[in-house]
Amino acid sequence: MDEQEKALTGEIKMRKLKDFSDGNPTTRNILNVSSIFVGVLVWFLITLIPSINTFLASPQQVISALGQEVQAGRYFKDIWASLQRVLVGFIVALACAIPVSFLMGWYPKVRALIDPWIQFFRTIPPIALIPLVILAMGLSEMAKYTIIFIAVFLVSVVTIYQGIREVDKTLVKAAYTFGARDINIFLSVMIPAAFPFILVAARLGIATALTTLIASEMTGATYGLGARITSAQQFMNVSVVLLGIITIGIIGFILDRVLLFVEKKLTKWK
Amino acid sequence: MEKEKDKTVTQSKPLIRVKNVNKTYKVVGGNDVIALNDVSLDIYPNEFICVVGPSGCGKTTLLNIIAGLEPHDTGEVTIDEHPVIGPGPDRGVIFQQYALFPWMTVRKNIEFGMKFKKVWHDVMVVDKKTGETHMERRYEHMTPAEKHALADKYIKMVNLEGFENSFPKELSGGMKQRVAIARGYAVAPEVLLLDEPFGALDAQTRAQLQEDLLKTWETERKTCFFITHDVEEAVLLATRVVIMSARPGKVHEIVDIDLPYPRNQATKMEPHFLELKNKIWDTVYRMYLEVRK
């Protein structure tokens, strides 16, 4: 038997080349689920060690903390307070980022005026702004919205503006040759072409809003997941800290899935 | 007597006149590139002009200037004796990269071209006082029904029936370019400017689209200004082939293609076709070698 035949019968294995595909979907799902399962199991097992259990609550403890929080009437109030801050900050920020990034994409002069500020503030962590925001706005809800707003606004402007710059200029030329005016180019070409980037910005923005939540609630809040985590930490109540972290994670996951679904529905043409 | 003379002059008037056009690209920190050097060319109604030449000869620059997508430095560019000051629906452009709007279906893409077009409508007007009616001619945007019907006609012309509601990503390269050609034709421009429209297609699709374009042109003799680097394609399609030389971009020679229409792929076997093709190819290749030096 020559080598070619051996290869065909499987006696010699053909080299498997990387194709960077997602792989078999069933395998993927099984691995996803078992990864979560094994993770929780490991968490359960290591918290059996007393020295670890002092700083890391076990799954049972987190579940009982959930029961207590719900019973005390705090849990859903916390979720609602945080969700409200996240959504208000996020929606207002995105609503402002869209016109600003379009103005930057459309007018080079606006771009030249705004860009340095965005580049400057982009690298500053929102936590650093807390003292200033508290001094300016006190411990109001407005202070929390402001922190989230700043973080989401910067991320969204950068993303949408990048998208606008990447719009295929041949499409603009083509529209001009049909007699389109600038306003038509803006409404009929730039906005739909940049639309997928607005959705990307929304997904990044939601993630940013949630990661900034704890920082924003450091400005003092009675209710809120971030405030709850901070106060539980002061009382060394590790299970409530973990409960808060897991809740934020789950909210983030759900919001991201919702946006992903919207994206799939609205950009079928992609 | 005077009027008679005028008439004959009108008949032989070029549709597009390019006269002594110069265009230089400024290069920051380098030598300026002279894209077009004193280029003159008259394009007459119903002509099919093909422009060939080595890369860097300013073919695309010339097309962009005629299309009004780029300004020229000096010289004169007119269409119907009006100076070109920007793009307009009297000059349809077909791009090599198709330029279809990916978020629009085939039909919406074709109808988009007509969006800014105005046509004459006969409208019945009722006089409110007397109740009498009379007809009035109005110059207004096309109605959705008119656009729909016209899109249907050109979808049929390019054999894309059944794909009206497909998105561009679902089409092959050849089909995409057929949509672009339908969109160009549907606006009914005075001239079609085609910038290497078949350059990105495989050989078979290219041959097919050449035949389709020939057939369309033979039935509806729209003036065409077609840029290609494929000499064979140029000789097959054109009534006149313009050979441009590079660095600086100049009109080197204009060759009349006196092959009778209808033409098709079989035309490529005819001795006279081969003769013309070889002659032009030789000129272009010589210039290519020249530029490489």
Overview of this protein structure:
- The complex is a heterodimer of chains A (270) and B (293).
- Chain A has 270 residues and is mostly helical.
- Chain A has a single domain, classed as MetI-like (MetI-like fold, Orthogonal Bundle), CATH 1.10.3720.10.
- Chain A is flat.
- Chain A starts with a helix and ends with a helix.
- Chain B is globular.
- Chain B has two domains: 158 residues, P-loop containing nucleotide triphosphate hydrolases (Rossmann fold), CATH 3.40.50; 80 residues, no CATH class.
- With 293 residues, chain B is of the alpha/beta class.
- Chain B is built from eight helices and twelve strands.
- The interface between A and B is medium-sized, with 22 and 26 residues.
User: What is the CATH superfamily label of chain A?
Assistant: MetI-like
* Fraction in helix of chain B: 25-40%
Mean pLDDT of chain A: 91
What characterizes the major β-sheet of chain A? none
Oligomer: heterodimer
N- to C-terminal distance of chain A: 50 Å
- CATH class assignment of the largest domain in chain B: Alpha Beta
How widely separated are the two ends of chain B? Answer: 57 Å
Strand order of the largest sheet of chain B: 6-9-10-3-11-12
Largest inter-chain interface? A-B, 22 and 26 residues
Q: Examine the coordinates and then state which fold CATH places here, giving the name of the CATH topology of chain A.
A: MetI-like fold
Number of strands of chain B: 12
Helix count, DSSP H or I runs of 4 or more residues of chain A: 12
Number of helices of chain B: 8
- Percent helix of chain A: over 70%
Structure classification of chain B: alpha/beta
CATH fold field value of the largest domain in chain B: Rossmann fold
Unreliable parts of chain A = none
What is the strand content of chain B?
25-35%
How big is the Rg of chain A? 25 Å
